[in-house]
Amino acid sequence: MIVIRCPYCQQDRHEEELGYGGEAELLRPPEPDAVSDEAWADYLYFRNNTKGLYQEQWCCASGCGQWFKVARDTVSHNVVEVVRFDQKLATAGKAQ
Amino acid sequence: MTGFRLSSGGHVDRAKQIGFSFNGRQMTGFAGDTLASALLANGVRTLARSFKYHRPRGIHAAGVEDPNAMLAVQDGYGYDPAIRAGQVRLVEGLQSKSVTGWPSPDFDIVAPFTAAAARFMSAGFYYKTLKWPNWSWYEEAIRRAAGFGSPNQVKQNRVRLHRHDSCDVLIIGAGPAGLAAADALSGFELDVVLADDAMRPGGSLQWEKAEIDGQPGHAWAAAVVSRLQAAGGRYLPASFVTGAYEGNFFTLLQSFHDDSGVAGECLWKLHAGRVVFATGAVDRPLVFQNNDRPGVMLSSSARRFIGEYGVAPGRQPLVYCADDSGYLSALAMTEAGLQAPIVVDTRAEPPATCVKAARAQGVSVHFGYQIADVLGGKYVRGVKLAAADGRITTLACDLVAVAGGVTPLVHLAAHRGTRPVYDAEVAAFLCPQLPDGWVGAGAVTGVRTLARALEQGVTAAATISRGKTAVPACNVEISPAGGEPLWRSSVGKPAKMFVDLQNDVKVSDVALAAQENYSSVEHLKRYTTLGMGTDQGRTSNINGLAILAAQTGRKMDEVGTTTFRPPYTATRMHAIAHNRQQDGYAPRRLMPAHNDHIVLRARFDDFGWERPDWYACNGPDREAAITAEMNAVRTAVAVFDASPLGKIEVSGPDARGFLNRFYVSNIAGLKPGCIRYSVMLREDGIIFDDGVLACIDDGLFLAGPTSGNAEVVAAWLEKWRQTEWPDLKVAISPVTSNWAVIALAGPRARDLLSRLEPDFDISAVAFAHMHLRQGQVSGVPARVARVSFTGELQYEISVPARYGAALLQKALDIGKELDALPIGMEAWLRLRLEKGYLHLGSDTSGRTTPLDIGMGGIVSKKALDFIGKRSLSLPFNRAEDREQLVGLRPLSGRIEIGGRIMAPGETSVPCKTVGNVTSACDSPSAGNIAMALIEGGAKRMGETVRIYADGKVTEAEICSPVFVDPDNERLHL
């Protein structure tokens, strides 16, 4: 069971109380009409699937309702870092 | 083997006699017995027949490691179709029954046939036979022959609980090591949970002869538990830790017992800061010819029956061992007053201390012999021994207690991914590397003596508390140090040497698997089914893989163990489901006027909320009532409870700009008091919500998602606000259940509304279609929307939920003069189908875009970006042959929902299909009508299509989906 401390309401929450939002730091193209079909499809469908430290977003769904960011090891499920949504994770930044 | 009750000894309460039955025979036992010990005490020998060969089976072990004693048991609270006798606490009135062997396990009709056919029924035989003409011809008979319990209709009365909890230290196992750890942790202000699967603490101290701190072992155990509880610690007996998960979470299955049986179970999800892993070990049997006969039993179980229950498993015992622990059984038997057992040790030079202690009690010891065969058809009558030089001796006996070695129970550590590693000195698989925060103690780490177990328990506690405590002193007769593994007898027929007793897997099957190249241990398991029974191979896995290793010339570590997964032991599905059943499964959501609907004889259905499907007050049956309700809407007025409609208030200076990023329609110009129908898309362009949006004023909008989407849309809006546009000044407030909604639909709707005393002008000119008004209705605050789902003049009156029931009642009472009827969901949905209004999820699939439902014009008029817009210009979303929503009229036969549209030119199935019928009904005004998603449908108006449904082919014509009032005149009355 993954347990994460919500950085907003400061409560330790079991994964059953949280919502999962997939990979974090995805950039929605600010001018969708200016990007190619391939680039748009990339944004729609392609995600990193890292074995190891991964940046992702979670929602305190049964608590305060805030979205926040987590760096988690996808193999051991160890939660390494948790930040508020307006902050950036220091762990496992993307190669680009 | 004929078991009997010893005249003294054991921890049963001889003052409390308990009556129970087995296969219809009345028997008695004592309080404190298990069903297994009581059956043994009553001389029961054969309990079952093995599942493939129907060989007789008796009690092989005292606890859950027994592969044989699966019985159907009924106690005061419920029925278990197959549970191990050693797991069942004896209670008054318990009924138990064999589940294999017909007419009885003693005399089984099938046995002679399977005995003759056995050589054709080796491992995996069903992969090579029983194929012609059809496997399912054989399946029924095979299932019946295999047995293993049938369900009955008795309802369970067990209490089902669940619990989330946490503790500082979880001690798994209340044997000597776990207890020593628990005792050593007291005084350090730690929250300790001590869990053990037995009813009484002490583990093996319940039956082994030992003294700890000057007291008998079991008394010391009870004292430790008292001390623990006095200090505020928690002791959970009858509780299995069934799974170990990341974050040091554990599932724990606690059961509650009383004098009527298993009163309930509680499934825990327990988080532990630190873990003392003290699960102990289980005996490993020896493998020899006919070792499955009733009367062959684990040596530790034999002395457990004697020591814990005061039951002797036989009168003429023989101990067969490759391990020192066999001598403990020999001593226990003589001390219990049994005829002095014979000890047959496979080793040429067993430890002198053990031999000396045994001989001192009159036990005769033979070393360097192996059992060549077991004599006796239905139960043990004797054994044939083979000396190293081949000489055969025959000995009479009725009990063979086998001690091949020990298997540490490392399963929980393996659940976390630690690979068990073979330790040649201990001749067992150990987990030297435990997960973070765990420390091992006792037999699970491979230690064999009581002194070492106690020492490790204290050390484990010290690692956690960082304190220092003394190790309790102990005293035992002999200390088993180890053994020399003999994985299988070297004399005898491999086809008669059983490795897995539950699944009838023999040594010859392991050889067969290796020969057919199923040489990975995982393949061995699945090909032969070794270890796949309810005992999970607890007494068979290691022997099996050792034999495989020898067969394929590999070392134990090269073969390895199979992967251990939760649950550690069989768990009732009831316990896993706990109270998430019936009303506990999902909360029933009731509308404010629920009781009024009951009075109107509504027939409810689950639409996410409990809503009337139709009203029995409107007609003698469903179709008649629905027709009456539909006619009321088309000719008079009907009253509909629309309370579950989604309502989300979006407010703030940026509300309009925010919402415009979601809706397909451009709402820049949506004026206060106006309403627009639109759809919302996912980023890939697929429609996921349709509904109306009302502008109350420039800083307040009311979004109306479809009833089923109310929570989803609110969460969606909130997610985008937080993660993409946090700088926008907008607030999102879901208010779906704050407002009850009563809809009035029909040409007389305005008349009815006026009689409900709105305090604003509702004339056609002042209050046009697709507008919203706020004020009071019947003296309570109201928002009235003039929108229509039926194609008739319609008003939706929203009032605070506490007035919903009163408003419904008043509308129906006043409406009587206007021939008003209450209307249910089915009629409501058929009316919208008559108008071609889509029903999200029925007429849209997971691939439908707004371009597929005719909203292309609206999309093209919106220059601003919205979620999903860019995807609509991707090539696959612009393709000509996409499925598009159209109407259908029958030409022959009747159109049914779900019918597949056959490709043009096809006349019979199987064939290519190009769509399906998404909605269909019989309309009083328009006859049989339908909507369908058909490839390129928009360009095929007027064409005939064939539809395949339920074995029949019918013909229909593609048409506009608007079947009633195509010019929408009635909307604007």
Structure commentary:
- The complex is a heterodimer of chains A (96) and B (973).
- Chain A is globular, with a radius of gyration of 15 Å.
- Chain A is mostly beta strands and 96 residues long.
- Chain B contains 25 helices and 52 strands.
- In chain B, a hairpin with a 5-residue loop joins strand 24 and strand 25.
- In chain B, helix 5 runs parallel beside helix 11, helix 7 runs parallel beside helix 8 and helix 8 packs parallel to helix 9.
- Chains A and B meet through helix 1 of A and helix 20 and helix 25 of B.
Topology, pairings included?
The complex is a heterodimer of chains A (96) and B (973).
Chain A: E1 3-5, E2 12-14, E3 19-23, H1 37-45, E4 53-59, E5 67-73, E6 79-84
Antiparallel strand pairs in A: 1-2, 3-4, 4-5, 5-6
Chain B: E1 4-5, E2 13-22, E3 25-31, H1 35-41, E4 48-49, E5 56-57, E6 70-74, E7 79-84, E8 94-98, H2 111-117, H3 125-128, H4 135-146, E9 159-172, H5 176-185, E10 192-195, E11 210-212, E12 215-216, H6 217-230, E13 234-236, E14 239-245, E15 249-258, E16 261-277, E17 281-284, E18 296-298, H7 299-309, E19 311-312, E20 317-321, H8 325-335, E21 342-345, H9 352-360, E22 364-367, E23 370-375, E24 382-386, E25 392-396, E26 399-403, E27 405-408, H10 411-415, E28 421-423, E29 428-430, E30 438-440, H11 450-465, E31 474-476, E32 498-500, E33 505-506, H12 507-515, H13 521-528, H14 541-551, H15 556-559, H16 573-577, H17 594-599, E34 602-606, E35 610-615, H18 622-635, E36 638-641, E37 648-651, H19 655-659, E38 675-681, E39 687-697, E40 700-705, H20 710-723, E41 731-734, E42 739-745, H21 749-755, E43 771-777, E44 780-786, E45 794-800, H22 804-815, E46 821-822, H23 825-834, H24 856-860, H25 869-872, E47 883-892, E48 900-902, E49 913-923, E50 927-935, E51 944-949, E52 952-959
Parallel strand pairs in B: 2-8, 9-10, 9-16, 10-13, 16-30, 18-26, 20-21, 20-26, 21-22, 36-46
Antiparallel strand pairs in B: 1-19, 2-3, 4-5, 6-7, 6-8, 11-12, 11-31, 14-15, 15-16, 17-27, 23-24, 24-25, 28-29, 32-33, 34-35, 36-42, 37-40, 37-41, 38-39, 39-40, 42-45, 43-44, 44-45, 47-50, 47-52, 48-49, 48-51, 49-50, 51-52
